């Protein structure tokens, strides 16, 4: 992947676009491309933080495994999404697994190069604090869902989050299609595929979404957003 191809993908992130231009150039220069195949580990829970990543192509799945051995999906990272920054700041091991959901190209800035950039450019700290705050707000919204929303509301919220991206970098329009299985949505919601299928069919009957094999298409974005509150 050429540098001229990398920059437009990175610019999909409002957070990255807000960085000073000279910092952007140094981040890109310090980064190296890494290819991972479907199912391959990017890093594992309890690993030491080896670097900061950005998805160039494909999709990365962040998840944990329960004591019963069941995978609980946290979210997916798609083109333009950065991840792996928390361990670089607190020095603690990774808090989750990261797997390639599809063949991926990742941009990686090693922990050594990342720390050197912070020393040379302290102005980076408030920018990364803003990225971390976005993660915290997303986490709080998940906690709010657990206690206050119906399962249908949670499902609508997850569909919307996946469509917008963690950094809300993707403008959501009617006709936006997500490539995601019902089993994956069920794992995100800690529910069964049968229950999620029933709710998806209800949303389709309400003309909020259309459901196809392995895909969900948003038909009425405003109605979907309203249903996130129920």
UniProtKB/TrEMBL annotation:
Record has Hydrolase as a keyword: no
Domain annotation HTH crp-type: ranges: 149-222
Species of origin: Paraglaciecola mesophila
PROSITE patterns: CNMP_BINDING_3, HTH_CRP_2
Domain Cyclic nucleotide-binding per the UniProt entry, residue ranges: 15-118
Pfam family, one: HTH_Crp_2
GO cellular component, one term: cytosol
InterPro entries: cNMP-bd_dom, cNMP-bd_dom_sf, Env_Response_Regulators, HTH_CRP, RmlC-like_jellyroll, WH-like_DNA-bd_sf, WH_DNA-bd_sf
Lineage: superkingdom: Bacteria
Gene3D superfamilies associated with the record: Jelly Rolls, Winged helix-like DNA-binding domain superfamily/Winged helix DNA-binding domain
UniProt protein name: cAMP-activated global transcriptional regulator CRP
GO molecular function, one term: DNA binding
PANTHER family listed in its UniProt record: CRP FAMILY TRANSCRIPTIONAL REGULATORY PROTEIN, HTH-TYPE TRANSCRIPTIONAL REGULATOR ARCR
UniProt keywords, alphabetically: DNA-binding, Transcription, Transcription regulation
């Amino acid at each position: 992947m050429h540098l001229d191809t990398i920059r437009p993908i990175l610019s999909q992130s409002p957070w990255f676009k807000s960085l000073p231009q000279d910092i952007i150039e140094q981040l890109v220069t310090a980064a190296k491309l890494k290819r991972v195949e479907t199912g391959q580990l990017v890093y594992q829970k309890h690993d030491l933080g080896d670097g900061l990543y950005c998805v160039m192509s494909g999709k990365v799945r962040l998840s944990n495994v329960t004591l019963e051995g069941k995978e609980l999906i946290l979210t997916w990272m798609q083109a333009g999404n950065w991840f792996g920054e928390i361990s670089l700041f607190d020095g603690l091991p990774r808090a989750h697994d990261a797997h390639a959901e599809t063949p991926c190209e990742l941009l990686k800035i090693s922990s050594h190069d990342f720390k050197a950039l912070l020393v040379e450019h302290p102005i980076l700290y408030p920018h990364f604090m803003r990225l971390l705050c976005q993660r915290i707000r997303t986490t709080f919204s998940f906690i709010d869902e657990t206690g206050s929303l119906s399962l249908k509301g949670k499902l609508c919220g997850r569909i919307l989050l996946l469509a917008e991206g963690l950094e809300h970098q993707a403008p959501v329009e009617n006709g936006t299609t997500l490539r995601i299985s019902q089993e994956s949505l069920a794992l995100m919601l800690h529910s069964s595929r049968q229950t999620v299928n029933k709710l998806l069919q209800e949303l389709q009957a309400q003309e909020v979404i259309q459901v196809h094999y392995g895909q969900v298409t948003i038909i009425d974005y405003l109605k979907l957003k309203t249903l996130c509150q129920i």
